[in-house]
């Protein structure tokens, strides 16, 4: 695009390439997600927080089961990953067995 054809304030394709990678850091929350999480935290505290949740889980075996199967797993990482000093290692064993035809 000719610079004479650009309207004031428009960015060219080349201008956009120079901004590549300058967005929000990986893993950071956007404003809406952060606000929603803060709202839920406030409600949880208003309902009694950790002490109330513990009491609820102990009231009935079904509640404890719901905690371990539905609530606690949400805290676990979705993807397993190692770190640079201790990477995950995987091994695959393959066994090939030859079988005679018609046997």
**Which class best fits the helix and strand makeup?**
mainly alpha
Element-by-element helix/strand order:
HHHH
Question: What sort of overall outline do the alpha carbons produce when their principal axes are compared?
Answer: flat
In this structure, how is the largest beta sheet organized? none
Describe the structure.
- By secondary structure, the chain is an all-alpha fold.
- The chain has a domain of 47 residues.
- Helices cover 43% and strands 0% of the residues.
- It is flat and about 75 Å long.
- The N and C termini lie far apart (73 Å).
A few lines on this structure:
The chain is mainly α and 103 residues long. Helix content is 43%, strand content 0%. It has a domain at 31-77.
List descriptors.
103 residues; 4 helices
What topology emerges from the helices and strands here?
Elements: H1 13-18, H2 31-46, H3 49-59, H4 61-71
